[in-house]
Structures are given as C-alpha cells and as structure tokens.
Design a protein that fits this description.
Blueprint (H helix, E strand, L loop, with lengths): L1 H15 L4 H30 L4 H9 L1 H34 L5 H8 L1 H4 L2 H12 L6 H6 L8 H12 L1 H14 L2 H8 L4 H30 L2 H7 L9 H10 L3 H48 L1
Helix pairs in contact: 2-15, 3-15, 4-9, 4-10, 4-12, 4-14, 7-9, 7-13, 9-12, 9-13, 10-12, 11-12, 12-15, 14-15
C-alpha cells in the first residue's frame, strides 16, 4: 500500500512545484517579445541603417581616416586596460580569498566602487585630479605628464571603470575552491610560481577568461568616462563610441551607424565567446561532479 502511494506522491509533488502549461507559454512569450523588441530589433536597425546606401558607402565610412583612428585607439585602450585589470583582479582575488588581513572588507568595497559611481563622475574626478587647475595637474605638467585630453587619460579612465570585472568573477570562485589544494602543494614542496601555474590557475581559468571577456567588452564600449577626459579631439583622443556620437551630431547618420555596426559586431562576438566559456565551464564542472561521485561510490558499497 505504501509502495503504491509513492508514484502518486511524486506526481503530486511535481504538480506542486511546476507551472501550468498556459503560464509557461505566457512567460516564454513575454521573454521572446522582450528580447525581440530590445535586442534583435535594435541590432537589425543598426545594420540596416549602416547598409542603407549600399556596401560601397558602408566600406568607405569604415575606411575613413577618423574612423580608422578611432578604431585603433579603442583597440589600444582595451589592449592596455585589460591586462592591467587582469593582473589587479588576480592579485586582489588571491589576497581576499586566500588570506585574512586588516582592511579586507574595505578592499572589497573599493573594488565595487566603479559599479556605484557614474562613469561621467569618474571622468570628472580625473579632471579635478589631473587637469591643469586640478590637485595634481601642476605637478604632472611640471614633470611632462599630460593625463587629461590625451591617450593616457583615456586608458586611466578605462582602467578605473573596468577593474571590478575580473576581480568580481574570481573572488567567489577562489573562495569556493578553498585553500586545501594550495596548502597540500605547499607541504609537498611546491614553490609559489608552481603553486599558481599548476594548482590555482587550472581551477580558475574559465572564470578568469569570463572576467577578461566582460572587461574587454566594457573597455571597448565605454563612453561616459572617456567622453569627459578625452576632449573630443578628432583623430587623437576619440574612441569608436565617441566617433559615433560626433557623426550622429553632424547628421551623418549612415557613417554613424556604420561605426556602430562595428561595436555591435564586437558585442556579438563577445556574447558568443561568453556563451562558449559558460558552456565549457559547466561541462568541466559536470565532469568533475561525475568523477567525484565515481570515487565515492566504491566507498559506499
């Protein structure tokens, strides 16, 4: 009798924890409509407007010297900012996850600071610090350092707004991993470098790559902070997002959408890379879970 009631109990529990078919269809429909309106439709509009005057006009807009200069500066800014944030994120995550020290909570709060501050305000802070009338401006100028309205200022602002991404991906991951493996390797005589390359890095590599992808996407698409510190000097301090703004304000819509299509393409590439990393990370975790269960099963039997 008790055995016969088990399937019925399972079915009742499944009904209690599942949604009706109509509710599922409604939720899926709302999600699809939302994505179509706010993701697919804008992307289609960008590429259709970019190609409105034909392929030749599209290619000409991208080969225009100012567009090429903006693209090069965008790639240069990301190429400098991302490795710096990679190094900082690794160091900060290692310190926070593996050690206890005074000021640890303050460090975590500072890492989250760019998430709570408007990028425009961040740019204004750099102006107040390093501008000609700023706190450190006269000192920087006397030493031949020009940090505002120049490429170093763009890089500095980009580093600030993007530095939480790698650290915030690694901190919870390294905390979940614990310190047992590192302690065991240390007892066996591993050096610090061997500890990092052979124990820590293999455990965090997918999370690290995920953080780098997000950091790179934000660095290439950053607008607010770099808009303030760039000075909008065409051909010198304009990144691709700033170039799009200038073209649009000049009513050169086709060229603006052509440049925007490059950013949209980079965003799509980032999305695909992010999805691949998530899939690969989930597959690795699944295999690790299967291996762990296989190791436990002989002990149970």
């Amino acid at each position: 009798m008790a055995a016969a009631t088990l399937p019925a109990l399972g079915r009742a529990r499944a009904r209690a924890t599942s949604e009706p078919l109509l509710a599922k269809a409604l939720l899926i429909g709302v999600a699809v409509v939302f994505l179509a309106l706010f993701l697919v439709l804008p992307l289609v509009a960008v590429f259709s407007q970019a190609l409105e005057k034909g392929w030749a006009a599209y290619v000409a807009a991208l080969h225009e010297p100012m567009a090429l200069s903006a693209l090069k500066l965008t790639l240069l800014t990301a190429a400098v900012a991302v490795p710096l944030n990679l190094a900082f994120g690794l160091a900060a995550a290692w310190a926070i996850a593996k050690f206890e020290f005074p000021g640890k909570n303050a460090l975590i709060t500072l890492i989250d600071l760019p998430f709570g501050v408007s990028p425009v305000i961040s740019g204004m802070v750099f102006i107040l610090l390093f501008g000609r009338q700023g706190i450190l401006g006269p000192w920087a100028e006397s030493h031949g350092l020009k940090l505002v309205f120049s490429v170093p200022g763009l890089i500095l602002a980009t580093v600030f707004v993007t530095f939480p991404f790698v650290a915030r991906e690694l901190i919870p991951l390294m905390q979940a991993e614990g310190t047992e493996e590192e302690e065991a390797a240390r007892v066996l005589g591993a050096s610090g470098l061997q500890l990092f390359w052979r124990v820590t890095l293999p455990n965090i590599k997918w999370g690290l790559l995920y953080g780098v992808i997000l950091c790179n996407a934000r660095a290439m698409g950053e607008f607010g902070a770099v808009s303030v510190v760039s000075g909008h000097i065409r051909g010198k301090t304009n990144t691709l997002p700033l170039h799009v703004e200038i073209l649009y304000n000049e009513y050169n819509f086709q060229a603006a959408f052509a440049a925007s299509s490059l950013l949209a393409f980079l965003a799509l590439v980032t999305l695909v890379a992010k999805s691949l990393v998530e899939w690969r990370s989930a597959a690795v975790r699944g295999r690790a879970g299967i291996d762990a269960s296989e190791e436990e099963s002989p002990r149970v039997h």
